[in-house]
Write a structure and sequence with these properties.
The protein has 150 residues and is α+β, with helices and mostly antiparallel strands. It is built from three helices and five strands, in the order βααββαββ. The termini are far apart. The model is unreliable at 144-150 (pLDDT under 50).
């Protein structure tokens, strides 16, 4: 491999307690990691990523929690693909992901609608134990879910 043309993979993998505090920490870790990777803490890409992580981590804590088990946050910067990949894995395998439509006045049920609006693409994959919900956002401005997108 030629070190002059290869780009080192930037990745964060962290297990966090399946509690509201763990979800808050996931959002903060995302902001700090992206800032360290050169994406300004208060910039559009960082803000979008923090919001996506917040929604996915909150869902993992609220709907995917198994007492005594953590959830996992994984951020992978893929510059060759112009993409940030966000993955949140929980250990609850008996509850498949359901996309619920929130009725006017409902206090819950909008998280995945936000994810769908902000991410270029997203999905769910089963694991040996539990599931992983992932979302991808572009690193460049002007693409769906990326910096500069209204």
């Amino acid at each position: 491999m030629n070190p002059e043309i290869s780009t080192p993979l930037k990745e964060l993998v962290q297990r966090l307690s399946a509690t509201p505090r763990g979800a808050r920490l996931a959002r903060r870790l995302t902001g700090t990691s992206l800032d360290n990777w050169g994406y300004c803490y208060d910039g559009p890409l960082n803000n979008t990523a923090q919001l996506l992580v917040s929604e996915l981590a909150t869902n993992a804590v609220t709907h995917g929690r198994v007492p005594g088990r953590d959830f996992e946050l994984r951020l992978t910067l893929l510059p060759e693909e112009d993409t940030l990949r966000i993955e949140v894995s929980d250990t609850r395998g008996d509850r498949p992901l359901k996309v619920l439509r929130a009725a006017p006045g409902d206090e819950h049920g909008r998280g995945l609608i936000v994810v769908d609006a902000l991410a270029r693409t997203w999905g769910v994959r089963e694991r040996v134990v539990g599931k992983t919900v992932w979302a991808e956002i572009p690193l460049s401005p002007g693409k769906r879910g990326g910096p500069g997108t209204p």
